[in-house]
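Reminder: ligand-aware prediction takes two inputs, not one.
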Amino acid sequence: MSRVVELIERKRDGGRLSADEIGELIQGYVRHEIPDYQLSAFLMAVVLRGMDARETSALTSSMVASGERLDLSRFGRVVDKHSTGGVGDKTTLVVAPLVAACGVRVAKMSGRGLGFSGGTLDKLEAIPGYRVDLSTTEFLAQLERIGVVVTGQTADLAPADGLIYGLRDATGTVPSIPLIASSIMSKKIAAGANAVLLDVKVGRGAFMKDLRTARALARAMVAIGRAAGLVVSCELTDMDQPLGFAVGNALEVDEAIATLRGQGPADLVKLSVLAGSQMLVHARAARTMAAAEARIRRALEDGSGLAKLRELAAAQGGDARVIDDPSRLARAKRTEALRAARTGYVKDLAADKIGIASVLLGAGRAKKGDPIDLTVGVVLRAKVGDRVERGEPYAEVHLGGRPDDTAALAMIADAFRWSGTRVLRRRLVLGHL
Ligand code: URA
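Here is what comes back for the chain with uracil:
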C-alpha cells in the first residue's frame, strides 16, 4: 500500500499523524506529487475525525512553510487583527488607523467578501484609487513610513492554503475546526506580525452559528498562534444582527469615517475600542486595558485616528479627499425607505437575511470572482431593542436598479421582527480567550 494511502487510512480510522507525516502530505500536494483525489480523501477524514492541537499546529506550520514568511522583526512589535467575518463588520477600517495613531505599527492583510460575508478589500476599494495589491517591498516601505498597511495577501504567503481551500470548497470539506483554524492562522503567521487579535463572530450572520463551536474555533486558533510564538487573544462577538448600521461597501466606508469622527454607532464604537485596546496591550504600548482604552478613546476624540485613515488612503493611492468629504464616495442610483407599519420595538434582526439581501442588491458575491457594485446596500435605522414610530423608516435601501432589487427589499423587511413591548438590547461581547 502506498504511503499516502496509509496516512489517509490512519486518519480515517481516528489515528494521529506526526508533524513529519502531515508535512509530507502538504508538501507532496503543493509539489503536485499527490493528486487532488487523495488530498480530498484526507481532508474528509479530518472533517470526520478531527485533529488534535499538535496535528493542527503541524498542519499550520507546513502551510506556512509552503511559501514566504515576512520578517517584520526590525519594526519591533507589529500587530494584526482578524475577524472571521460577518455582515457590516467594518471594524478594521476604524481600528487599524486608531492603533497606528497611538504609535503602534499595524500590518494587515485582508480578504475579499464571499457570500454574505463582506471583505475589507472590497470596502477599501470604495475609496477611489485605493490599491489593495501592494508588493512586499511596498508593504514594508509603507509600514516603515506611516506605521499602517491594509492590503491584499501577496501570492507567495501560505500558497498551500489557497490550493487546499480551493479543494475544500469543491469537496464539502470547509466546515472543520482544525482546517479553518489552520487556514486562517497560516496566513496570519506568514504575514509576519508578532501579535494578533482575533474576533470570532457568532450567530446567524457568521461562519460559526453557536457559541460552543465558535469557542472551539477560538481555542484552536489561539493555541496555534501561541505555539508559533505569537501573542494572541480572541474576542467572541455577536453576529446575530449586523454590526453597526451600514451594510455595503461604500456605505460601510462612510460609517467607518463617521466613527473616526466620533459619530459611530454604539456597537461599532464599543468593539473598535475593545479591539484597539487589546492591540495596544499586545504591543506593550499600554500596561493595562484601562490605560490602553484611554489612549484609543483619545485618538478617536482628537481626530488623530481620522488623520491616520487619511494618511493610509493616500499612501495606497486612494483619493484622501473622501475622508474629509464622504459625499465624494460613489452613491447608488436610488434609495428607498422601508417604514414601520405600526409603532413598536425591533425584537429580532436576522443578520443572514440582511447579508443575503445585500448580495441580491449586488454588494456581495454569490461566487468567487463575481463583480460587485460598491455603491449599493442597506443602512439600518434601527437595531434590536430600538423603538420605531409608525411611518418612520427602519431601513434605507440603496439600489442599483437590478432585477433582484424587489426580492432584496422583501428580504430586508423579512429580517425584522417586531414587538409591541420593550425589548432588551443584545450583548455584543460574548466571551474572551
Ligand atoms: N476563512 C479562511 O481563511 N479559511 C477557512 O478555512 C475558512 C474561513
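The mean pLDDT is 96. The chain has 17 helices and 13 strands. We will return to this case in the review session.
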